[in-house]
Amino acid sequence: MRKILVYAVLLMLICSLAACAGESAPSATAQPTALQTGANTQTNSPSAGNTLQGTQSALPSPTPTGNLPSSTISGSELSPSQSGSLTPAPSGSQVSAPTKAPTKTPTKTPTKTPTSTGAGPTVPVQPSAPVNWEPVIDKDGTYHFGIGAKEYTGKLLTDFTGGKIDTDDTYMNVGRYEFVNGTLKAYTDGNFVDKYDNFTGGGLSKGQYSTAKYAGVRVKNNNDTDAWFHLQGSGIFLGEKGQDVILAYDDGRAYAAPVQEHTSRWCIKLPSGFEGTVLIPVSRLYSGPDMNTSSAWTNSRTPWTQLGFHVTCSGTASVDFRYVFLTDKTLPAVEALPNNPSNITNPEYSYTDEQRITPFWKSSIMYNECLTFEQSGSKISGTLLFVPKRIIAVVDAQLQNEYIEGKDYRWIEGTNKIEWLNGSAIPYYYEGALLGKNENGSYINDYPNWDSLSRCRLAGVLYCADKFLWEKQINVTYEYDLSQVASKGIIYTQYQGSRLPNTVKKLNNNQDLKVLFYGDSIFAGGDSSSSRNRAPYMPNMDRLLLDGLKARSSGNISLKNISVGGWTAENGLAALQSGGYDGRDYSALSGYDLLILSFGMNNAATDAKTFADTTQKIVQAVKKKNPNIEVVLVSCMAPNPQAAGFYGNQQYFGAALKQLADNNSYAFVDMFAVHKKILEFKNYSATTGNGINHPNDWLIRIYAQNILSAMVEFE
User: What is the CATH number of domain 2-25+49-59+87-103+510-711?
Assistant: First the structure.
């Protein structure tokens, strides 16, 4: 009886997390060869698909607050506390498995005090759930924008139509402005560009100036360097002092932007690649002829009749402006924009957006493969996926500092093993750390009691998404012989264009493409560095895919992420029915061309046939409003095989989903098989973002590479 009670308590503990499944280490049985990832060898027959695995939500996350606009991406991440129910795995499984993985991960990252004058406490800049705040404007001119996962609204002043556009010579004839397809584009030509009257009229004077608290501008910096931006116009310009200017990224991140004097203007720093909304508090707007001596615009609140922009940048690509609006909403104070300095000077080291998503099996260079050093007795070492020809660079988790061979580490030539050296600056896992132990051998707190390092012990292993985990995930860039892909039997996804003819046609012909992205917390973005608001701020999986598609087509490509952390496939199906599930009703979603679908991590106790049947019902429900939609099924990654109760029937879903894909001519990505094969050569700790069931930046990239490979032919 006592044993039964102990087991019951253990089950309840695991259940209070959120979804994953059973135990049992992945077997080292030979996997299909690299060409078999997804579909063995691709043929023109609809039945030939790749078995690629998808990831379901490992650790659930909090539900977003506010109503997301129809074009936004909703999802959730992890954070501590949130309970789920634990159910025994079906007979035949080695261990009982919870229906949900831990729904939250630690949120103990300390907030910084902003350096500016904004009032009120700061809020974490990471969204409580990954979203996509691409512009939504209602017929009445209501403009939707977001900070984190919360939606705010304002009133549109102009979309640069209905008034007069002025792109004539700018001040001192430096740079130029262009107006293209509703977008005002500023080209600095490496200097600056300046006009007070880019736009005049168009209903500017009808704005709600009397109650405005912020002026919002939709901005995109297309340069690979920072740009500086100044708002000016009829009787207004940006001043030195006032509340914080907010940079609200489309992915939910938000920061206090530094204001600095540039070329006789007070300017806002726009980081390279910034795309989102700049929110300027009206307390920073000034009137009069001189920006240093004039009075506050709030003294008069005179309506604007014209708007102008000043931009300075060392790059030659455009800085784009699309919408200007006012809002009377009170916005939260946010943390200061991180500087993210890099001390890496290695001339051979590179890491571009394209290198990030190019399939590693197509390149003889492995870029920033994650490696962790684990202690075993007196030895501290880690392993790479392949045997290098040479190592190009070993850098830290944040891609800011390089480690030195012979001082910090030693590569054992002819092997995939790297050893830690005494006195090394590289952090490592001491023996027992990954089993939830302190250095003295005692156990750390059990979930949900987080310790001072934002970690706890869950299901017999370390559960952590904070520095104690991620700082040990260093990155290795190296050259290797591509023949190892075949000799090691590496699994990857092959091109399946015959199953996605409309998607391929739209991409090749630069036509509009609308993508629906649906799954659990893995698809929602759980534990990417950007979702955790830390360097290197790698985008969530959906954004990687979107950027990868946009790089290959000039059509208007959009992606809506409706993934929710902690959800099972059954939850995903329920949300597509009339009335929805858990506050989300997806039954009316329409107009989509492609569905990328991945549940499963939270279905550890579900038999494979039932899971495949539910997956098909999800597809059929989506097809009711989107009859011509094409489908990519993605199986989930492997949970930690040492986490009791998390590793279960996910191991059988790949075969069932492949059969489903073959029968219906869906594309298929078998991420479970991909991940399981990787684990034959690498530590689980080098692939996880939380120690239990979320991918880290490197494995998220592997996900994106495999999914893209199903629809794009890489050279």
Answer: 3.40.50.1110
